Amino acid sequence: MSSLIDQEFDSEAISSARSSVPTSPGQSLDGKDGLDDGLDVMSTSTRTTVGDDSDPDTLVGPRPIRSICCVGAGYVGGPTAAVIAFKNPQIRVTVVDKDERRIRRWNSRHLPIYEPGLAEIVRIARDGLRDHLTPPVSTNPEGIRNISEGHNRQQEGTTTSSRIPNLFFSANVSKCIRESDIVVIAVNTPTKMRGSGAGSATDMTAFEAVAADVVQHARNGSIIVEKSTVPCKTAQMIQEMIAVRRPGEHFEILSNPEFLAAGTAIHDLLHPDRVIIGSATTEEGKIAAQTLAGVYAGWIDQARIITTNIWSSELAKLVANSMLAQRLSSINSISALCEATGAEINEVSASIGMDTRVGDKFLRAGIGFGGSCFKKDILSLVYLAESLGLNEVGEYWRQVVTMNEYQRNRFTSRVIKCLNNTLVGKKITLLGYAFKKDTSDTREAPALEIIKTLLDENPGEIAIFDPCCNPYVIESEIRQLHGYGPPALRDDGGAVKVYSDAYKACASSNAILIVTEFDEFRNTELVAVPRSSLPPGHLPLNKDMHKSSKIEASSGTGSAIDPLYVACAEENYHTEPDCAVDCPDCQRENGSELVVGKLRDNLPKRQVDWERIVDNMKTPKWLFDGRCIIEIKKMTQLGIRVESIGSAGF
């Protein structure tokens, strides 16, 4: 019988089917309690074999890795594999996925996801480089494209060495698994929506299908790596599969969770705070961890590569995301107090952020967190605690999600109240749709829930503009709302229309909602002010971090946080793969003004002309800043009323 993955596996699909994989921490596949099992059960052989079919008893240490297979070509698998290949030209890295459309895009110039720097790294690793005499490098950073700190700046008259491709994308899953020394599982693990544990437990349907396929096809001695965020004891589930399906053969299971943030994923991969590798506590498990650590050692300092037991590694990812989300919910709860008392949330955040015990990260108030990780990981932690009888612990963490939903609902209620409790016949514009800036990731984006609420008020039009997201992707998601009520899209008879031009989206609007903190929507210039340059006793507030003028279009910088740099000339690159004549992505690009994908890396971020926007709005003119990025005083001088999270407003 063919495996699930070879039938119709899509690494990012959120399945609502019930999973037979245990989601309680102490439950094994056969229903037996396994919470107190020893970690040494994760090893099935007395020696470690990596990438070789020879006798495992003759191999006692880590061996060079020649090939890696990453199952899952989504937001985690694609960028992770690209950077590993980029930094390890001697290793063949293949990303596999049964979604042939996604694989087609990875093999073209139309990458399926946007992250600053990703397109350049993929192009180098996937297509290779030519020998080319590099001209002298100017000391003026303007106009120099950023690609990688892993490539040194070329000296005058030197030659850039050629590089053969070592990054590949394929839909032939089983073949690539068989040919690899390390198999990385990087598929979606959403929250279960049906059955036991619905609403909090992790839906392991896709992960179980991939794990089964890996166990079936991986060669003896391979290392299997959990990159997906999974519940505690998942490694034991994989080991039980091996015991049943491949008795007598040896595999080591490692946990290597990702800690990527959308919008900075490439920077996070190149400059991680830490790399965690969890393994069995046996000698074989430690050798497997050393082997994987060797892959990262090419560009990451050894001190940042941390080895733990496998259960600690699996739990660490859930706790890390839960604590980050907790900080956001904490500051959002304070924003409500600020609105009621007249305090300013930006001033409060800056004041407490300067306390080194607290730090200034994740203290920006807004309409709540989104993305595929925070909510589901908190709920997974809640389910874990409740399964162990720690109900008070579970309730504590559940409140983080409750506060997040409260903050979003509070924002939309404020919009409706300011517009006289009726949106009938009015145009509302949403600037931003992705859940955060500098990414095309729309999973669990607050924008979708906001749109649902606004649609209930029967508005004349809901306009959407996002500088990173493909309008067709947004329309596809909005169209799914039809299952909850009448058609939502204007083309289907509803009120929602997606624009590729910000000015058209805002024209004749009664109210504009800033939903995503894209720099393009600010009314202050992105010029960082070092803390040392501030007057004594002066707080580094939002207004100090940006100067009040437009970004110069001639700056040539694509991202204020671009982590990459190289002086490769265009002649170093091979020509990108040709698209088919009927390529749908080419057709969309030719008919759209929207700058997305890699093109956005090479163009300056041009902020919108707010004066032009305000002039073309209907009176009374409202701006609702859901991300605290607008300088209110400057905006009110244009004749528009501003309501901002954490400020008292009108």
From TrEMBL:
Keywords on record: NAD, Oxidoreductase
Q: In which pathway does it act?
A: Nucleotide-sugar biosynthesis; UDP-alpha-D-glucuronate biosynthesis; UDP-alpha-D-glucuronate from UDP-alpha-D-glucose: step 1/1
Which is a Pfam family this sequence falls into? UDPG_MGDP_dh_N
What's a Gene Ontology MF term here?
NAD binding
Show the GO cellular component annotation of the record.
nucleus
- What residues does the UDP-glucose/GDP-mannose dehydrogenase C-terminal domain cover? 429-536
Which ranges are annotated Polar residues under compositional bias?
13-27, 42-51
Q: Which residues form the active site?
A: C373 (nucleophile)
The reaction(s) catalysed by this protein are: UDP-alpha-D-glucose + 2 NAD(+) + H2O = UDP-alpha-D-glucuronate + 2 NADH + 3 H(+)
Q: Which GO terms describe its biological process?
A: glycosaminoglycan biosynthetic process; polysaccharide biosynthetic process
- Tell me which domain of life the UniProt entry assigns to the organism this sequence originates from: Eukaryota
Q: Where is this region: Disordered?
A: 1-59, 132-161
EC identifiers of the protein: 1.1.1.22
Per UniProt, NAD(+) binds at D97, R102, T189, T229, K376, R443
EC top class, in one word? oxidoreductase
Enumerate the InterPro entries for this protein: 6-PGluconate_DH-like_C_sf (IPR008927), NAD(P)-bd_dom_sf (IPR036291), UDP-Glc/GDP-Man (IPR017476), UDP-Glc/GDP-Man_DH_C (IPR014027), UDP-Glc/GDP-Man_DH_C_sf (IPR036220), UDP-Glc/GDP-Man_DH_dimer (IPR014026), UDP-Glc/GDP-Man_DH_N (IPR001732), UDPglc_DH_bac (IPR028357)
Q: Which family does it belong to?
A: Belongs to the UDP-glucose/GDP-mannose dehydrogenase family.
Q: Please give the name of this protein.
A: UDP-glucose 6-dehydrogenase
